[in-house]
Amino acid sequence: MENSNKVTRRRIYSREEVCVGCRLCEIYCIAAHSEYKNDLIKTFKKISKRRPLPGIIVEERKPISFGLQCRHCEEPECVKACITGAMQKNPETGVVTNDAARCIGCWTCILACPYGVIRRDYRERKIASKCDFCMENGGEPVCVKNCPNEALYIGNVVEESNMVEESNRGFREMEGRA
Amino acid sequence: MSYVIIGNSTAAVGAVEGIRKYDIETPIVIISDEPYHTYSRPLISYYLGGKVAEENMYYRSRDFYEKNKVKPILGIKAKSVDFDKKEVVLQDESKIQYSKLLIATGGKPFIPPLEGLDKKNVFNFIKFDDVKEIEKVAVKGSRAVVVGASFSGLKAVEALVQRGVNVTVIDIMDRIMPRVFDETASSIALKTLREHGVEVLLKTTVEKIIGGENAEGVILKDGRELPCNFIILAMGVRCNTDLVKDTKLKINRGIVVDDRMRTNIPDVYAAGDAAEGYNFIEGRNMEIAIIPNAYRQGETAGENMAGKERLFNKGFIMNSMPLLGLSIISAGLSESGEGIRVKAIYKNRENTYKKFYIRDKKLVGYLLINDIDRAGIYTDLIRREVDISLFEDRLGEEGFGFVSLPKEMRKERMLGG
């Protein structure tokens, strides 16, 4: 009865050996998610309160530094722990996204995430904020694109796909009691 | 034939998703005595506080049942289970055959024997219907007594404060959140509660509920009388095993399950607040009544019901609770004991508190107040039973993260996901 389909997903990795801690990844991430879409000057001159949080966390303990963002895990602890169902893994893209409309800022995802890459966003309603793999930028993460040292790169991982989505959508109404 | 799930909350949804990873054909039937589409139990306090509307109470999208080939039978109680005939009997006497059964009946409120319990305006705080009743009486300026100052009691208090209700919360212990908080943590939260006008009475309990047809007040053990318009009982949950008690199903406090969520009866599984699974930190089976655990148990049950051998033996307590502007996260053990070392960092000025519990080179518990960022890294150290001796001194340091771990460990972890 078992079906299983393997799919290849992309994931962002980090090389601490060549990271210089310049934080350009943060800057570009903020700009890409601001209302001024990728315009650094406007993002940082015009808005302060409304400025998005970076989806990448730059860790530093001199001389070491590296960037880290959501792994979009195959078995995402945040999704399984989420109390509202706001945090979901997209079965087609594998990207884990928080539905801002349904997030209530209870921080259970922060408690659950093994990578510590979810932030508390207090800008308007309290919501959890994290990397969205730049899906609105065509799935090309700007942090990777703009890292001057190629300290961030994209690798491939193989995951099991979700069977429900692979099967025919829109099932017939089930008839009678099972 | 079909999979049958009794229950429609976190564990049930986890089971549906677990089954559907491997079996997209066999029908699933969900039976619930509540009439609602699967909804999030913890959201009831947010609903009551006016933070979440009814249409946002759902735990999974509206097309969840259809998409997953689930037939929901809602608003009808399961009356009994005949394990020999492999069928569930409903309140309306109809019978549902199962090939595999999951019992995910959740928790029920613990209610002490109290005089006056039968009066109107005495509420529990577990289900959606509870808050639908409470919102009718929780009007601005009314007076409420909340019995129990643990998670659900305090979430009720917060919602009532948001509604402009005058609240008194009572707990028999000498501190609030007694199972998780020590003196320091309790005093931080007490200060916040009192700043919001909440009256907190500790080391006492309600002796009886007074009034006519409606509750009009409570009398405490020390003889004090507190007038109020309504009462919320939040003294904890017990495993809800009413449906299957006095059957051949093995029940201790909850339904006893192994690491594949199997009960002692073939083809019968249990998960969530009704079950008693393995808590690896305590080293014994016990009820772990939290959402992340209910989901994981449900998912594991579903995977095994679909014929896949998957284990879940990493259950432990973890909780995150915002309370009137405070952020509180705790996981694992929360009291000291033999062989346990404690490290605590309290910063008065920042109003932050961090406490770690260490047992033979492993982190076995922690509590964070306000400075909760990256808490999940600590949770993961507990979950994977990591030897922390090389970096124990860094726990709780400013900027704690992967950078605080030994290089090999960090590299190995950062390639995961």
Description of the molecule:
The complex is a heterodimer of chains A (178) and B (417). Chain A is of the alpha+beta class and 178 residues long. Helices cover 19% and strands 24% of the residues of chain A. Chain A has six helices and eight strands. Chain A has helices at 24-32, 40-46, 77-81, 108-112, 142-145, 163-166; strands at 6-14, 56-61, 64-69, 87-89, 96-98, 119-121, 127-129, 152-160. Chain A has a two-stranded antiparallel ribbon with strand order 1-8. In chain A, a hairpin with a 5-residue loop joins strand 6 and strand 7 (127-129). The model of chain A is unreliable at 168-178 (pLDDT under 50). With 417 residues, chain B is an alpha/beta fold. Chain B has nine helices and 26 strands. Chain B has helices spanning 10-22, 43-48, 64-67, 128-137, 151-162, 183-195, 291-305, 375-383, 407-414; strands spanning 3-6, 28-32, 70-74, 78-82, 87-90, 95-97, 100-103, 107-109, 122-123, 143-147, 166-171, 199-202, 206-211, 215-220, 225-227, 230-233, 237-239, 255-256, 268-270, 275-279, 284-286, 318-323, 326-332, 340-347, 352-359, 362-369. In chain B, the strands form seven sheets. A five-stranded parallel sheet of chain B has the order 3-2-1-7-19. A five-stranded parallel sheet of chain B has the order 9-16-10-11-12, covered by helices on one side. Chain B has a five-stranded antiparallel sheet with strand order 22-23-26-25-24. The longest helix of chain B has 15 residues, at 291-305. The two termini of chain B are 37 Å apart.
Chart the SSEs and their pairings.
The complex is a heterodimer of chains A (178) and B (417).
Chain A: E1 6-14, H1 24-32, H2 40-46, E2 56-61, E3 64-69, H3 77-81, E4 87-89, E5 96-98, H4 108-112, E6 119-121, E7 127-129, H5 142-145, E8 152-160, H6 163-166
Antiparallel strand pairs in A: 1-8, 2-3, 4-5, 6-7
Chain B: E1 3-6, H1 10-22, E2 28-32, H2 43-48, H3 64-67, E3 70-74, E4 78-82, E5 87-90, E6 95-97, E7 100-103, E8 107-109, E9 122-123, H4 128-137, E10 143-147, H5 151-162, E11 166-171, H6 183-195, E12 199-202, E13 206-211, E14 215-220, E15 225-227, E16 230-233, E17 237-239, E18 255-256, E19 268-270, E20 275-279, E21 284-286, H7 291-305, E22 318-323, E23 326-332, E24 340-347, E25 352-359, E26 362-369, H8 375-383, H9 407-414
Parallel strand pairs in B: 1-2, 1-7, 2-3, 7-19, 9-16, 10-11, 10-16, 11-12, 18-20
Antiparallel strand pairs in B: 4-5, 5-6, 8-17, 13-14, 14-15, 20-21, 22-23, 23-26, 24-25, 25-26
